């Protein structure tokens, strides 16, 4: 009862309160709302967005292995983690398809890094294995590599992270071979592979198939790994079971190298290395590793793989995978099919005119020739005496009139550099010959390897005089070189030429490092020039300081093969000792020589014969060679007798007989030369047999010693180089240098004193002459039989 009373007592008060609230509620509610808005604005401005939730774990465990991915320790992670990154990762089986042709535009690893902090490089060493040799080798290799890179780090300021060793059987291939794993900020990746071959089904097949599929998957860029710094492969094999590459030695390493070239946009950092696990793998691996360290040093300094390789910015990148440049033909080499019984037509070469047009060309050029014959020989200016004004003393007096032979701004300079020559100074040149490239790739060396033991990949082809005094119809310099009968240009010092040609040669060799198929061992050897062929273009003995130049070669134990065109007897007589001295014999009689060499000298035939006499005098001390270049329709038919007479006169130690190379230029065509002038190999052989017979009839003791069918070349040798029934055409280079060092450059010794061991069986007459260590390929790089 008292409760009810209390309520009735409070009622008037509550009514008043309610009335009061009704009167003020609108302004009160408005001001509270306004205050809350102000408070919110204040908090936003001060504190930012509060943390809402924790991020998920960044690195997933490797689903393939159940183990935590190794890449976590490598400070890198697969490129599939964040949403943004997911968008860039190619999806293999679902989702919208992305088609993007061509090679991915190169990223920072091509030398232009976005962040300019110190460079950090992470080598990743991938291996596969079934019988457990390779894991151990890989770990040891990684340790050694790390140690070898230490000095590079100190000298370049670049950090090399400890090489990570990864088993291809344990990683998720998608993490590394669809796109490179995303490295931590600033870390760049280099892939190295230690890869055995197996002719049974292994992880290798899965892996290679994966690479192939990635390359062919149209949703993925054709070069999805191009953001890597580069890659290189070392293969393990067993020569006992798989003696040659043709029979399967290291075949999977070669395949891997090929696919990685495609996937990285040809970023082959170092040539492929190959080792026999039972024999030489340690040495081969060390060579390859040296090459890798070398390139890492280059990468550390510049971020690029070097000249000629992708990303270098060099105008010519040497990564054409299988294309042989026909214009590279040098030295009169010719590539024709060597089947003696069933000759096939030589392949048409680049630049050659249409076959239908050859008749016209022949006709036109013949009439050209006839009219030039009517006009007589080119006017002779002077003979081979050097112009006194070209010596440094004379130069000072006659400074204004002396010109450079090949000035930088001349069309000749442009044309020669376009053809691949490096012009050194103002009158010298160096060029990598196609046999050097071929030997680097294990595809055979030039005939000089078969006959004389010249390793083509260690041979520099150069000339200190781009000028000469002939205009031979088969010259492959495309009519661009300067000609003259006397030296009338600035003379560069021999030291500068010597250093310049070596630098030019090495630079070009280095540019070939990334070329498909280059072998690490051959590449390492090529970085030491051992031979010099002074036979490029022009006339080397035209250069006034040729003897000083030769002395420089010999001081570095570089052998010298000097080819002269038999037009400068005075210079030939003054020439000091060379390892092998050649005279080009382009014809057997005056008229034929005029037609084919188109000499500038009016007394060219007399000069020619005097040169043969000089060679005859030299033959006891030095190895002398006649080089015959057979041009069908010009200097072959009915000329055996004439050549036999010339051999009788000069009595050379050797006679090289080879078919002409058709360079397919307008110059050649204008001179009346076409494919029909290139003799078949069997025609060359027939000629050689006829010449041998004729020499025997004359009582001259020569025999067919060796052949190199691959370049259409056969060697006749004097019996002086036959010992106990075996030909000894090889050269003992070491002995040559010893003799030179003991007795001086006037050469008081006999040619036999530096005769080498017996000519290898495979090079002797009847055996083809192709180096059995190498694979013979056609112009497209396809293997062909060597028999
Ligand atoms: C089953 C089998 C197949 C092989 N097939 C080849 C082959 O085709 N070509 C080759 O050069 N080496 C071949 N080899 C040699 C291996 O590549 C070589 O011994 C290598 O070092 C093995 O490495 P691993 O011990 O890490 O497996 C083969 C070896 C084995 C066991
Ligand atoms: S001698 Fe030397 S430069 Fe000449 S073709 Fe042979 S390898 Fe090439």
From TrEMBL:
Domain Radical SAM core: from-to ranges: 452-701
Organism: Sodiomyces alkalinus (strain CBS 110278 / VKM F-3762 / F11) (Alkaliphilic filamentous fungus)
Biased amino acid composition, Basic residues: 95-106
Region (Disordered): 54-118, 303-347, 764-787
UniProt keyword Membrane, yes or no: no
Keyword Transcription regulation (UniProt): no
Protein name according to UniProt: S-adenosyl-L-methionine-dependent tRNA 4-demethylwyosine synthase
Ranges of biased composition (kind: Basic and acidic residues): 69-90, 107-116
Residues covered by the Flavodoxin-like domain: 123-293
InterPro entries to which the protein is assigned, alphabetical: Aldolase_TIM (IPR013785), Flavodoxin/NO_synth (IPR008254), Flavoprotein-like_sf (IPR029039), rSAM (IPR007197), rSAM_sf (IPR058240), tRNA_wybutosine-synth (IPR013917), tRNA_wybutosine-synthase (IPR034556)
CDD domains membership: Radical_SAM (cd01335)
PANTHER family xrefs: S-ADENOSYL-L-METHIONINE-DEPENDENT TRNA 4-DEMETHYLWYOSINE SYNTHASE, S-ADENOSYL-L-METHIONINE-DEPENDENT TRNA 4-DEMETHYLWYOSINE SYNTHASE TYW1-RELATED
Family: Belongs to the TYW1 family.
GO molecular function term, any single one: FMN binding
GO terms of biological process kind: wybutosine biosynthetic process
A Pfam family the protein falls into: Flavodoxin_1
EC number(s) reported in the record: 4.1.3.44
SUPFAM superfamilies (UniProt xref): Flavoproteins, Radical SAM enzymes
Biased composition (Acidic residues): 317-336
């Amino acid at each position: 009862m008292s409760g009810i009373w209390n309520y009735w007592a409070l009622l008037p008060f509550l009514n008043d309160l309610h009335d009061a609230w009704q009167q003020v509620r609108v302004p009160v509610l408005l001001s509270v709302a306004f205050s809350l808005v102000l408070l919110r604005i204040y908090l936003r401005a001060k504190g930012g967005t509060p943390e809402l939730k924790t991020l998920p774990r960044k690195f997933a465990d490797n689903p393939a292995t159940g183990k935590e991915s190794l890449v976590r320790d490598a400070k890198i992670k697969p490129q599939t983690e964040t949403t943004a990154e997911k968008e860039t990762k190619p999806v293999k089986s679902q989702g919208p398809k992305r088609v993007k042709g061509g090679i991915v535009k190169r990223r920072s690893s091509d030398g232009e890094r976005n962040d300019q902090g110190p460079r950090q490089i992470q080598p990743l060493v991938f291996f596969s294995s079934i019988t457990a040799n390779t894991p151990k080798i890989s770990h040891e290799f990684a340790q050694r590599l790390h140690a070898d890179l230490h000095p590079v780090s100190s000298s370049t300021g670049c950090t090399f992270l400890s090489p990570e060793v990864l088993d291809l059987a344990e990683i998720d291939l998608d993490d590394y071979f669809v796109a490179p794993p995303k490295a931590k900020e600033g870390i760049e990746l280099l892939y190295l592979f230690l890869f055995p071959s197996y002719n049974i089904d292994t992880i290798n097949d899965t892996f290679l198939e994966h690479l192939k599929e990635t390359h062919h998957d149209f949703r993925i860029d054709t070069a999805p790994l191009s953001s890597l710094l580069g890659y290189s492969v070392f293969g393990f094999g067993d020569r006992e079971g798989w003696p040659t590459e043709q029979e399967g030695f290291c075949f999977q390493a070669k395949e891997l190298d090929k696919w990685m070239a495609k996937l990285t946009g040809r970023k082959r950092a170092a040539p492929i290395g190959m080792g026999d696990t039972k024999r030489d793998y340690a040495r081969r691996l060390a060579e390859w590793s040296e090459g890798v360290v070398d390139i890492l040093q280059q990468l550390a300094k510049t971020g690029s793989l070097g000249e000629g390789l992708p990303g270098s910015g060099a105008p010519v990148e040497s990564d054409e995978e299988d294309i042989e440049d026909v214009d590279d033909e040098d030295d009169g080499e010719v590539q024709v099919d060597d089947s003696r019984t069933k000759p096939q037509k030589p392949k048409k070469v680049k630049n050659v005119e249409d076959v239908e047009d050859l008749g016209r060309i022949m006709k036109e050029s013949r009439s050209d020739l006839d009219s030039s014959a009517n006009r007589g020989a080119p006017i002779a200016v002077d003979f081979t005496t050097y112009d006194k004004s070209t010596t440094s003393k004379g130069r000072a007096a006659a400074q204004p009139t002396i010109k450079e032979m090949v000035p930088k701004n001349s069309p000749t300079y442009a044309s020669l550099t376009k053809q691949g020559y490096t012009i050194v100074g103002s009158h010298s040149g160096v060029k990598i010959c196609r046999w050097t490239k071929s030997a680097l790739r294990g595809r055979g060396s030039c005939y000089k390897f078969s006959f004389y033991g010249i390793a083509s990949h260690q041979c520099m082809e150069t000339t200190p005089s781009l000028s000469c005094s002939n205009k031979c119809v088969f010259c492959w310099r495309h009519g661009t070189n300067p000609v003259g009968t006397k030296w009338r240009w600035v003379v560069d010092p021999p030291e500068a030429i010597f250093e310049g040609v070596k630098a030019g040669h090495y630079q070009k060799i280095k540019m070939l490092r990334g070329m498909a198929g280059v072998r690490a061992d051959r590449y390492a050897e090529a970085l030491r020039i051992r031979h010099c062929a002074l036979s490029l273009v022009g006339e080397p003995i035209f250069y006034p300081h040729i003897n000083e130049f030769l002395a420089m070669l010999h001081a570095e134990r570089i052998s010298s093969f000097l080819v002269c065109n038999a037009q400068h007897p005075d210079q030939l007589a003054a020439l000091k000792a060379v390892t092998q001295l050649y005279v080009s014999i382009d014809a057997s009689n005056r008229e034929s020589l005029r037609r084919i060499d188109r000499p500038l000298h009016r007394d060219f035939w007399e000069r020619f014969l005097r040169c043969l006499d000089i060679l005859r005098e030299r033959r006891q001390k030095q190895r002398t060679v006649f080089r015959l270049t057979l041009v069908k329709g010009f200097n072959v038919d009915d000329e055996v007798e004439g050549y036999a007479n010339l051999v009788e006169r000069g009595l050379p130690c050797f006679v090289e007989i080879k078919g002409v190379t058709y360079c397919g230029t307008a110059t050649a065509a204008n001179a009346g030369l076409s494919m029909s002038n290139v003799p078949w190999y069997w025609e060359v052989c027939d000629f050689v047999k006829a010449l041998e017979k004729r020499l025997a009839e004359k009582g001259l003791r020569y025999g067919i010693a060796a052949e190199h069918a691959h370049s259409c070349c056969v060697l006749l040798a004097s019996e002086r180089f036959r010992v106990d029934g075996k030909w000894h055409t090889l050269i003992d280079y070491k002995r040559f240098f010893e003799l030179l060092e003991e007795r001086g450059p006037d050469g008081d010794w006999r040619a036999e004193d530096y005769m080498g061991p017996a000519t290898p069986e495979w090079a002797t007459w009847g055996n083809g002459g192709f180096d059995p260590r190498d694979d013979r390929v056609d112009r497209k790089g396809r293997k062909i039989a060597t028999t």
